[in-house]
Structure formats: C-alpha cells, structure tokens
User: What shape does this take?
Amino acid sequence: MNTHTIDTSTPAIPADDYDTTAFFADPGAIATVTNTTDSQTVPLPTPDASTAELLAAVHEAGRRTVPAPFAETALVARPLLRRAGLSVPEGPLTYAIAPQLTVRHAHPAASAVGSAGSAGEDDTLLVAGTLRRVPWARTATAVVVLANAPFGPVLFTLTPDQAVLAPGANLAEEARDDLHLASVEIPAAQVRRIPRELLEEAELRAALARAALIAGAGQRCVELTVAHTTARTQFGRPLSRFQAVKQEEAKLIEEAALVRAAVQAAAAPLDAGTAAARFAIAGAKTQASASAAEIARIAHQLHGAIGITKLHPLHLATTRLWSWRDEDGDETTWAAGLARTLTADTLWAALTSTP
Amino acid sequence: MPTATISPLGFPEAVLPESARQLRLDVRDFLDEERARGTVLGRPDSWLAGWDPAFTRRLAERGWVGMALPTEYGGAGRGFLERYVVIEELLAAGAPVSAHWVSDRQAGPSILQHGTEEQRRFFLPRIAAGKCFFSIGMSEKSSGSDLASVRTCAERTADGWRLTGTKMWTGGAHANDYAIVLARTEEAEDKHAGLSQFIVDLRAPGVRIEPIHLMSGEHRFNAFHLEGVHVPEAMLLGQQGDGWKQVTGELAFERSGPERYLSTFPLLVSLLRELDQRAMTAEQLTQVGILTARLHSIRQLSLGVAAALDAGASLDTQAALVKDLGTRLEGALVDSVRSILPTPADPHATPGSHAELLAFALLHSPGYTLRGGTNEILRGIITRGLEQH
Assistant: This one.
C-alpha cells in the first residue's frame, strides 16, 4: 500500500557520437534523437523506507531528471504529514513553506479553544495569500502547506482545486506554479498544529531533497560527459585522451562526488533530529548549490557545441542544476546560516559532529 | 575484489566506531594539557613543519603513535578509523606531529605489511614508542611524479647491497634515524619492474645529507646522497623486484588522509578568532560558510576512503580524488581567508598572530598540491578510474 509510482520518461544516455551533418541532412534524425526515451516507472519508496533509502531514491530521480514531484513526495510531503499525524494521500504530493500566508480561524468565536494536535472543528482555518512557485502544483494530489497561524505554526493540506493556479516554470521547464488562495476554508480535519521544530525540519527536508536531486543531476552530467569524451574523436583520438580534457573531467568527477558525499552524510543526522541535522544539511545544500555551476560549466565545455542544444540531453541536467541550486535556499543563504552558528571555538566541534 | 564495483562517485559511507567518540574527547583533553604547556600552537602545516620529538613521545605514551599496529609489535591494535580520529584532532589543533609523521603513516604500516619478522620486531615497537623516526627516499632529481624512473641503484655484494644515487625532497633526513629507499636492483625493459625497497641507516658511512631550504627559509627537506652505502641483506624490505607494487600499494593511505585537507585549517580558526571580535558582514558569513561546507564535504569523502581501507579494500582512484580536492582546498582556503579579512601577510609579526600564520600558510601553499604526487598527474588516475568503471 501507498507505493504510488510516478511515470517518468527520460532520454537515454547517448552512447554514440553525434554527427551534426546527419542532423542537418535528415530532419528525421533530429526527431529520433530528441524523442529517444527510456520510459520507465520509478517506484516511490515505501513509507517505512529509511532516510538513507529515500535519499538514494531521490538521487536516482535527479539522475534520471524525472519530470515529476518525486523528491517532494518522498522526502518532504509524506514524512511531514506523518510527523504531523495526518494520513498520507495517494499520488504525487508537493509542499509550500509559507510564513507569509494570512491564516485566521474560520470560526473566530472558537479561536481561543483547541490544543496542540487538535483536530476539532475549532481549527478550521481561513487562509489567504499566494503560495509562490510551488513545485509541480498542477500535477499534485495535495499540497502540504506549513504556515504561521495566530496560535502558532500549523501544517495543513490543500488540493490544487481549492486555489487559483497560475502556471509557471523554472529554467528546466519544471512546473513551478503560483497558487492564489482567496480566503479558502481548510476543514479542521486537514489541519494540525505543529511544534516550531517541525517547521524547521520542513525547511531542512526541502533543502536536503533539492541537494540530493542536484547530486543525481551531477552524476548524470558525469555519465553523459564520460560517454561523450570517450566516444567523440578529434584529431584522430578520443577527447578523453587529451590531457587538457582529462584535467577538466577529473574536476567534474570530483565535484559530483563531493556533492554526493555531503548529501549521503546528512541521512543519519536527519534521523537523529533537527538539531543534529542543521549543520549537515546546511553543509549539503551549500555544497550542492555551490558546486552546480562548476559541474554544469565543465560538462558543457567538454560536450562542445552539441551540449548547448536540445538535440542532446545534457541540458535536461544542467538547466535543473541551475534551477535547483536556487530553490529551497541558495548557497549564499545556507552558507551564511551555517557561518552564523560558528565561532573559532565551535568550528571544529561542528565539523566533527558528523558522522 | 568487492570494491571493484564502487564507482569513483560512490564512496562508502563512514560510520565511526562507538569507541571513537571517547577517543576524540581523550585527545582533546591531551591537547588542552599540551596547549597549557605551550607545545600546541595552532600552526598550519604542522605535519610537515611541527617538529617536536618530546611531544611525539608523550603522544606515544598514550598509545597514539603507531596506534593501528598490532599490540604484539608494540602498537595499540586499533583500527584505521580510530587512528583517523586521533590524527584529525592533532592536525586541526596544529599540533607538532612531523617528527613521527612518516614513521606512523608509511614506514610502520609498510614494515608491518612487507617486512620480515625480524624487521617487525626491531622497528615497530620503536616506532610506536616514538623513538625511531623514518624518512622516505622515493623521489629523485629528475623523477618527480614519475617514480618508475628512479635511477638510484642497488648492487649485490657478498653480504648485502651497495646503494648509489641521490634522492630528493627527503623530509627530515637530517634528523631521522632511517630511510626507506626505493632503488633499482635490475635493469628491466618495463621500468616498473626491477625496483626494490631498502631500509637504510641514515648514520651509515656513505650517507651524505645536504639541506634544501624552502622559500620560507625552513630546512625540512634534503638531498640525500647514497655514496656506495652498505645495506645488510636483512634490510631489504619486502621482495626483491616488488618495489613498485609495494610503493603504489601504500599510496591510498598517503593520499586520502586528513592531512590532505586540514593543513591550513588552523588558519581558518585563526580567522574566526579575529572575526569573533566583530560582527561578520553578510559577505564574510557567506564565504566562511562556503569554506566550512567544503571542508565538511571533503571530510566525508576522506572518511569514506578510510572506512574502505579499514575494511581491507584499496581505493586508489578515490584516494587520488580526495587528494586533488583536499589539497586544492588547502590552497584556496589561504586565498579566501586573505580576502575575507584583508590582512598583509607578515612573517615577522608575533608568532601565532593572524598575519604571521597567513604568511606561513602562504609560503607553504604551492606545496599542498605537489606532495604525494602532483595533482595534474593524479587527475589522469581519476578519469581512467571512471572510464574503466
């Protein structure tokens, strides 16, 4: 149960070289390449999967550039719903962390009543405002919203039809939709009061999910690049035999490995609790976002001109890297947050807090 | 080998043994005592420049020199991950560990693995006691990263070998007791063949040590001339002709340890000490955070290799990767620190002041990406490793 799958169709990694003359000579060849698909169903991990397993699955979704809210569902929405004590709906889910939302009681007379975790009538909410750039909102079964109510933080679910949806997208053309809420009533059954800690955990989960996706897309860049430089010949030998190419390729491999290791190292701290997770996840998202530029730069440089076209699948990974590094907190934000907690006397202790 | 399936992108996850937590606290207590004594000065590159045999002996009394050597040879019989915890604590604190560094990291494990029982019984307890110091004689004037081109030759004599040649960059040879020397025992078509390792007494007749001063003025390295030095038969290390295999087999240890990203860490601590006295700007916060995240991430990779080594695997590609990433960070950290808090580097400022540490780290900085195999050469290993995967 609850093992919903998300259909994905991702382009296969090209094993052979591209002959651009063929593209221009035969428009059909372009269609063949661009439509090359590796259709498959990537199963969402079961709800009892460990954080490490969830991270591995999200990494794989990033590697395959899955066009669906896979990470959002597996690593953010579902665990938050469970932690808040709400049932987990079937299907793809997404989330919005929205402190800017106006949240009121729908029944003002009852607003003083109710207690944490209450699901009584009293907690029926009236929410107004805009949830900006919600990932995949248009395809999600439900949106998990975290907001501040007058009585403290709340988590509630929303179905996309309760909002007016303004479609948007990121650089990779992944859906990032605005949801306009004009005094929408959220039944108390969909609302949970949550501890402030869960609000922070939501931010950490979102950042880690995005970092894991970046790690996957980084690996994809490595795979595509190695495939290209070993297959493509110039001056009579494969690109990969050129020293200058090796130098750059090694740096690409290293940067991707670095992100992957930082993400992997955050699993155990997240299981241990919010305080332990803060350093590891801030470090992982900082590193993932900071590495995105270098990974994309080298991958494109080593692909030559074909990599900057839609003929080649590289753009599926690199446009995502450029988008994801900004989403759920960019490297500047996370790095500053990380540094704010450090002094000369605590730096080493923080670094050795993992593993 | 099971590790053959590990991609250079996928590192084993390091889980430190439960004992490591207490061990770390014990080392911190020891370091506090040593700070009070004035021996731990928080200096960069302390594994190259922090020479203090008395400190080494006190460390050895705690069982923290040669700690991964078996107890029957005087070691502490603890794993590589426990050793890792101890050395990362020492390096982060900038403790003076260079006297025993090579004995602990290379000579000890090498003698344990390749040495005769007689060699083990003689050398290992002395190493673990912090009373016997080794140099490594690999590089030569024209060899650099191309170790297979060494020309120092070992000729058979009636009761052993006669070594002739000149080694370069022999760290500490002027102060140490022995050197492990890579020499050619036979001319072979394949230049990786015909090499052997010898344990050479640095006080033997025919050994001549000539200082090579660093641009900072320090005397750390030497030209080590072997002028027909007699080496007894019993001092051949490992199998004759296996020198290349023996040397390269140890490189994963040498390349992936915490010394490959922590050499300049004390400078970052010094920067934070300066910044603790004022409110950091947004730009300073960002840069400090980015450096910290990178240190954290590289440490995870380095620990991953240590975990694999602990399990008996050898990950040459991953080790090369850690070395390139880590040592590049060591250098970049110096430049970042300079830009985060502009400070003129001053070698004559008060020892231990930020300006003096910056000068010290800067003068050492070109070496970070050279020692242990130049990074440009290691990158060839990394791409090859992935392509073969």
User: Anything to note?
Assistant: Chain A touches chain B through 50 residues (CB under 8 Å). The longest helix of chain A spans residues 196-231. Residues 137 and 177 of chain A are 6 Å apart (CA to CA). Confidence is low (pLDDT under 50) at residues 7-40, 111-120 of chain A.
